[in-house]
Specification:
Elements lengths: L3 H62 L5 H12 L7 E5 L4 E4 L10 H18 L3 E6 L5 E9 L3 H68 L1 H27 L6 E4 H13 L6 E8 L5 E4 L1 H18 L4 E9 L4 E8 L27 H13 L2 E8 L3 E9 L1
Parallel strand pairs: 6-8
Antiparallel strand pairs: 1-2, 1-4, 3-4, 5-7, 8-9, 9-11, 10-11
Helix pairs in contact: 1-2, 1-4, 4-5, 6-7, 7-8
The structure holds adenosine-5'-triphosphate (ATP) and magnesium ion.
Magnesium ion binds next to helix 7.
Amino acid sequence: MNNPLKEAATLQFYRRKSGVKWIVLILSVIIAVGSIFYTNFLVSEIKEREEKQINLYAKTLEQVSGQFLNPDINYFVLDEIISSNNTIPVILTNEDGHLTSKNVPEVEGAKDDIERQRILQKEVEEMKEVYAPIPITFRDESGQVYGYGNIYYRNSILLTRLRYYPYIQLTVIALFALIAYTIFSYSRIAEQNQVWVGLAKETAHQLGTPLSSLMAWVEYFKLEGGETAEIAEELKKDVDRLEMITSRFSSIGSIPQLKNYDIVDVTTKSIAYLEKRVSTRTIFSLESFPEGAISANINKSLFEWVIENLCKNAVDAMGGIGSISIKILKVNEGRIAIDITDTGKGIPKKSLSKVFSPGYTTKKRGWGLGLTLVKRIIENYHTGKIYVKSSEIDKGTTFRILLNA
Ligand SMILES: Nc1ncnc2c1ncn2[C@@H]1O[C@H](COP(=O)(O)OP(=O)(O)OP(=O)(O)O)[C@@H](O)[C@H]1O
Ligand SMILES: [Mg+2]
């Protein structure tokens, strides 16, 4: 029997969730690449302008050197063009190798001209690597050459900052998004917890009333004797089962009490119960290392629920034919491991990360909640761990539970 409502709910939930994730990821990459590209475009525009400005600077210098007769033009040119460069670092050399500079902050701390020359020389070496120097020729007013020089320059600090800006900006945004995502997912988990606990509590509460009435009736029929008492005995088994279910729901709906139990014994009883209810072609076995009782702090009804869920999944995976072997062992650091191995169809590698997610199922009539519940019980209520220890297609699967002793 197909359940269209269920299929619609779970499948759509899964597709939508992973679809949205991809869209967000792709959009983020587009935005990041786009902003880096745009800034690079701006950088190259500004770079071009700075180069033009330097060329103009060089030409002006050449002109000015021959125009000492006309102080008006001189001052205008000097003020408007040469002094207007407040950002691009330039160094001017003349034939004797003497260096003068503008916008080179490195020389500010120099204590004398010797040190200043040394610093500028170093800067010149670095500038040479990036841009070829612009040669200039000095002439006097009659056009007679009286010297040669070179202008060295590099890009302004503004340009350098602009180049790194998108990376810094994107890092800050990514960090912010990460923090926001963490906060949101925490609040989502808190909300889910509330739903789980609330629903379980309510279910236990609602089952409680008719159950106590049923129990009273069973006792009454037992006293009748004869055939009625026999029927009452059978009825009692179902009532007990209902009581167990109620106790599971009530345990998961509150902070459950953990008590010391011999888990070999508890597991043996769970298996005995299950064995009667599955195909006779499912063979159960249980071993413990070391042999004998192994005790751990558990909530009995929740622990039984875990064993039942894992064994039911194992039976499903084997189509009812095969063997389920359970090993209970003491491992390091006082921990106890419970390995449940089946000879079923195995779990594909790509699904391993999904089996514990709510809604993940490969079964026509599954809800994909069994393992979610198991993980909750083990990790939240017993501070233990559960994971797929190994799985091989068509060979079988081993789930491992780790508990504190
Ligand atoms: N022992 C196993 N061997 C192979 N696959 C498994 C095994 N246990 C779980 N799975 C896979 O993990 C899926 C999720 O299991 P889970 O118990 O959470 O849900 P379900 O069994 O499908 O439904 P239900 O809510 O009824 O338990 C299963 O549908 C199955 O594909
Ligand atoms: Mg299941």
